[in-house]
Specification:
The chain has about 120 residues and is an alpha/beta fold. The chain contains 5 helices and 5 strands.
Length: about 120
């Protein structure tokens, strides 16, 4: 079981995916906060502390690239795992340069695998 003090922000505009990820992570013992657009994610990241962010790239108001760029520009250090259906190598390269720790293509990755990866990363 995970350390209950670990906090995760799930920044995902697809509400069913966000809900499933949130439930799986909560079941593993994490405190989870949801953001449904990039502006909300940025707002939460600068007001609260998180151990990890699961960040979608295609979201309303601000996309995941903009979220990563703003975190980098303002020196906000947080572990970010990108979860997206964009599968271009260029997108992956860009997010890694912007500071993401890893990149999962949602359509190719079971959510359980993402949760396993989160648990390993936060040990």
């Amino acid at each position: 079981m995970a350390d209950k003090t670990k906090r995760i922000l799930v920044a995902e505009d697809d509400r069913p995916i966000s809900k499933v990820l949130t439930l799986k992570l909560q079941h593993s013992g994490y405190e989870v906060v949801q953001a449904f657009d990039g502006e909300q994610a940025i707002d939460l990241l600068f007001k609260e502390n998180f151990d990890l962010v699961l960040l979608d790239l295609i979201m309303p108001k601000k996309n995941g690239f903009d979220v990563l760029r703003e975190l980098k520009e303002k020196g906000k250090m947080v572990n970010v795992i990108v979860t997206s259906n964009l599968s271009q190598e260029e997108d992956k390269k860009t997010v890694m340069e912007l500071g993401a720790k890893d990149y999962f293509v949602k359509s190719n990755t079971p959510l359980a695998k993402i949760v396993e990866y989160v648990e390993q990363m936060l040990k």
